Amino acid sequence: MIRFENVSLRYDKGPEILKNINFHLPAGSFHFLTGPSGAGKTTLLRLLFMSLYPTRGRIYLFRRNISGVDTTTQAELRRRIGIVFQDFRLLDHLTTFENVALPLRVMGRNVSEYREDVTELLKWVGLGARMHAYPHVLSGGEKQRAAIARAVIGKPELLLADEPTGNVDPRMANRLLRLFVELNHLGTSVIIATHDHQLIKQFSAPRLVLHNGHVQIRN
User: Fold this and answer.
1) Which of 10, 92, 137, 199 is deepest in the core (most CB within 10 A)?
2) What is the DSSP letter of 145?
3) CATH code at 206?
4) Cβ neighbours for 59, distance < 8 A, ≥ 6 positions apart
């Protein structure tokens, strides 16, 4: 599913944030991505989503070298990825329901085909009563749950989540993690960047540990 070969990254002429990283993750795996603030967790996820490219080295995703792919190929690969950004990136002119359904609309599916699935998922994440609300009236936690629902609704091959439980209470955080685990059981590869060590302890999964620009895989 994912392979990093001697990957390094620096911004402009600054120091390297990621240094000569090598690891591979099989399809269907589930990993937490951990490390101190500023270690490069978000940067690593952005590399996988192709919003950044490495300064050196190669990244393989879905068995393809994604370094420098053209925009058409990039768009095709991104459709196979669900991603939860820290800033949510909901579209202000769409309701919660419409934001969550967006990946299905992009796939060309009709609303009559997905209305029930989207409604059920919104209820699962506690947004059943907010499905017709617009982003500007949602709390931070509600926006986060909507962003998570949007990321998983299409059952992507790869899910990347950047601090997905940072704005919710422990009960909801546990519920959302169980949603990710269930998606993983259906075949999705999952990488979750998080600082929440209590949450990590509740779910037995290996960790990608970022420290001083390097990555170690720990069970």
Assistant:
1) 199
2) H
3) 3.40.50.300
4) 2, 3, 4, 5, 7, 47, 48, 65, 66, 67
